[in-house]
Design a protein that fits this description.
- The protein has 8 helices and 2 strands.
- With 193 residues, it is mainly alpha-helical.
- The protein has one domain.
- Strand 1 and strand 2 form a beta hairpin.
- The longest helix has 27 residues.
């Protein structure tokens, strides 16, 4: 892990080193291999629950909520396409499966590729969920609440699968909330006028 430094502040030292032990990650990996039902549930929430964000977008499209949909897209793009890649440029962190040399359940097609890049921090999935959930809670509270619950399950599942550390998920949620705040505070007023 390369520490992120700005002047004399070492931001890498502010992140918790071990909230979950290496032994725990390996134990979870073994339990997932032994229990297919548990593995199916964790894999669904960890890899495929992102599809529910797309379903929410389609729902808004069907309702004709185009301005709200644009807001969600702007928030998502800020989090996933702009902010997270900028962080990845300056802060490299191995994923648990990279550090511990195991292969988690994955889908090489779209959702979670096995990668050699050190891009664990912050979590793209967590940033995506938070960037969509925050505006949804304001405009469609029930739908936003459901997305928040799914985001929590997604984050926990990504930790159990060995894709992320707890701090990766928390940072992803913060990035998503920041993106939503920018989109709602600066972009939304422009869209309304």
């Amino acid at each position: 892990m390369v520490p992120l430094s700005f002047n004399r502040i070492n931001f890498g030292s502010l992140l918790p080193k071990k909230m979950i032990s290496n032994k725990t990650y390996l134990s979870w990996h073994k339990k997932l291999e032994e229990n297919s039902m548990l593995k199916s549930i964790v894999v669904f929430f960890g890899l495929y629950s992102l599809l529910l964000i797309y379903a929410a977008g389609l729902y808004l499209l069907v309702l004709g909520k185009y301005k709200e949909l644009i807001l969600l897209l702007v928030s998502f793009v800020l989090a996933r396409i702009i902010i997270n890649p900028l962080v990845f440029l300056v802060y490299k962190r191995q994923r648990p499966y990279q550090k511990l040399n195991f292969v988690p359940p994955h889908n090489a097609w779209l959702f979670s590729n096995i990668t050699a890049r050190y891009n664990s921090f912050p979590s793209d999935h967590a940033a995506s969920f938070a960037s969509i959930a925050a505006p949804l809670v304001i405009f469609f509270p029930l739908l936003g609440g459901v997305i928040i619950i799914i985001a929590i399950f997604n984050g926990l599942s990504r930790i159990v699968l060995g894709y992320h550390y707890i701090s990766d998920i928390l940072a992803g949620w913060l990035v998503g909330l920041l993106a939503a705040w920018v989109a709602m505070g600066w972009i939304w007023p422009i869209v309304l006028h």
